Amino acid sequence: LKMFWFYLPLHLLMVACLCHSIKVPTTSSQQSFRTDLFNFYHSLILADGKETTVHLLKDIPKRYYFVLEEGRALAPFTITVTPCDVPIEWSIHVHKASASFLGKAARGDHDTQDDSKSQKAPSTVSTIFNYKGNSVETYMGMSSHSALYMLEFLSTERDTHITVYFTTDTTSGHLYPELPMDPRLDVVGIGHTTVTLTWKHSPSVLQHRENIQYCLLVNEKHNYKSLCAAETAIRSSGMKLPPALALSLSPYLLEPQQVMILSNSELSIINKASSGEVRQICVGTKNTYTVPNLSPSTQYYFDVFVVNLLTNASAAYTGTFARTLEEPEPKVMELKDGKVIHVVLDGKKDKFYSLQYQAMHKKIRFSFQLCHGQVQIHITKNGKTVALENISGLRYFSLKGKLLDTYLVQLRSTEESNSSLKVQVSSHFHKPLFPLLPESLKIKSFSKLRTCNSVTIAWLGTQEESKYCVYKRRIEEHQVWRELQNADRCSGPQSRPKSEKVLCKYFYDINLQRAVTTETIQGLDAGTLYLFDVYLFGPSGIPIRYHSKVVKTRKKC
């Protein structure tokens, strides 16, 4: 047994001394002794030079111990504690044992009578540091080999976790990147949808540029004091988040609720949580960045973290916040009675295009013809909404009000690409802008009537005599999708070559069931794709384009 004490490592010897200082329990102290044993056996030795994740249960303290390597009289040490959620309490206690007591422990002398007389003499316990909060705190001190140090952590709000970094090596660099003397972020520019930030360089970036980068976090709630705290908050919102290494260009860690944007060597990960949008943007070693695509008149919180790509450890700059400028009122264009205007909407800017009309009659009609894309229309009368919908093709709104009522029409593209449409407002119902339309604008082809040099198509007409013109054009297989998707439904045949014109004809039928016409187009090439268009002309002369139809002639007959 004496030989066992002699060969014990120092850190176990110190723990053994701590156990030795606990008096053998009597009946009256059994409960207290059980508590001491529970706390001891649920304590751990803190690893030197490693970051340790500690999980805390509410109101249950957790203890970690550390000592120096044997043979080192005095040495500096540092402890960095990073709360990852709620504020915590933590403290450092030092247990100093006397040399004579250590000698007794090593020799295995366990005289019960001596122990009872001197149980208070062998060691003293003192608190050298305590802290309560959720900031990242670092303690630096000097350690003695004859002292056992205990770290105690407690969370009184809820279950949480923290990270603890302990090291006695202060000469071989830092696990955490260094912050500059002034770690504040400066807001140097504010726009309607942008905020420009700048910060002083980290000394670690200047020394180890290839292993260090800055990562910016943007959200609408509050600042975060550590990257660990930010990730915990995002997880608690109901979504999964990749480890912090995702900030170091690891796109394979992304979850379905995340969107990654990589451009100009910048990685942006957008976490679309139910509580809002959290954006993580890694910008390399640049210390100035303009955050794009923000919403006008919105307060945002900005945090910058300097990240060590090798260890994934990070340090947080002092966060800041800024409110984007209010979006200026859109310019309003006056609509004139009976005049047709062509409006092109920029889908990327997501802005409204506004038109205003003051009624000179009690009854008016708005006419909209969608040319390309998808458009949302919002019509108000004297500030009250009278129509709000997404349109396709042709759409009429017949409204009734009072003289001098003010109508405001707001148009917005619902696609990221550009959209366009034609708009008219008129009080003359007897002079419609567009012709009477059939039930369907589809063109039908008859497969059985196809030959090597002809195809037969059909389309619906109306009860009103109108002019119909047919055009054709040869296309290749790879052009089909693009032609059908990008067709301008407002463009007339005047922009097409005369060689593409097949014929024009007039027809109508009082009985809508018989208002159908067919046409066989001759002189085609075998095994060739053709794009067919039909244009309908009404009294106003504005054409309506049927949906294009692609037909392939037979290869062999």
UniProtKB/TrEMBL annotation:
GO terms for biological process: nervous system development. Pfam families: NDNF (PF10179), NDNF_C (PF19433), NDNF_N (PF24354). The keyword Signal applies. Its main location: secreted. Residues 1-21 form the signal peptide. It comes from the Eukaryota. GO terms for cellular component: extracellular region. It is found in: Secreted. Residues 177-314, 435-543 form the Fibronectin type-III domain. Gene3D superfamilies: Immunoglobulins. Keywords: Glycoprotein, Neurogenesis, Repeat, Secreted, Signal. Transmembrane segments: none annotated. SMART domains: FN3 (SM00060). The keyword Phosphoprotein does not apply. GO terms for molecular function: heparin binding. Secretory protein that plays a role in various cellular processes. Acts as a chemorepellent acting on gonadotropin-releasing hormone (GnRH) expressing neurons regulating their migration to the hypothalamus. Also promotes neuron migration, growth and survival as well as neurite outgrowth and is involved in the development of the olfactory system. May also act through the regulation of growth factors activity and downstream signaling. Also regulates extracellular matrix assembly and cell adhesiveness. This is Protein NDNF. It comes from Pampusana beccarii (Western bronze ground-dove). The gene is Ndnf_0.
